[in-house]
Amino acid sequence: MLKFVKNYMDSIEGIEIYPIISLLIFFTFFVGLFWWVFTAKKDYVSKMSHIPLDNQNDSKL
Are the C-beta atoms of 15 and 9 separated by less than 8 Å? Predict the structure, then answer.
């Protein structure tokens, strides 16, 4: 089965760019996420972490 897929992929012109594009998208996303995590303000992170525990916005049934 793998031989069939490999031979089929070898016959397609220009397909070698897709793994490179996928790697660049993956790398860019996680570098951006890493940068955002380390530059986020501590009070913002604290505020967001307390939202699930906040009972003031509960609707009455």
Answer: yes
- The confidence band for 13, taking pLDDT boundaries of 50, 70 and 90, is confident
How far, in Å, are 36, 43, 53, 57 from residue 47 at the CA level?
A: 16, 6, 10, 14
Rg (CA), the chain: 23
Q: What angle do CA 22, 19, 25 make, to 5 degrees?
A: 15
Return the residue matching tokens 């220009």.
14
Residue type, 48: M
pTM for the predicted model, two decimal places: 0.58
